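Sample intake sheet
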Amino acid sequence: MPKDDGLNKKHAITLILAVLGDGTRHGYDIAREVERRSQGQLNLPDGSFYPILRQLEGEELIQSTWIGEEGSRRKRVYSLTRSGEAELAQHVEAWRSFAGAMDRVITRKTDWLVRALLLGERFHA
């Protein structure tokens, strides 16, 4: 199956919030976790990913802190705020509603076609 590079900003925000919903992570790890959980199907490119993190922090949906000792390599880590948790819940509900609507549209008349193709049957439109 082809990789989906067509994520819009709203979907990227949902994915970032969802990963941070499981705990604090540094930026690079957030993006890699999205890729891992999606089995390589979803990718958050650096060019759009880090600006979204800054936006979410400006909206106080996430917060960041630096970890590591002075003089050594430090990492910026991100975590959800209470407002971010509420926003994540809204995004999840909106996604489930959207996915359910899509499923209702595409499965009613196409299930027979998918089954026929999987079984190698001939069909007539």
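Comment: The mean pLDDT is 87. The first strand starts at residue 25 and ends at 26.
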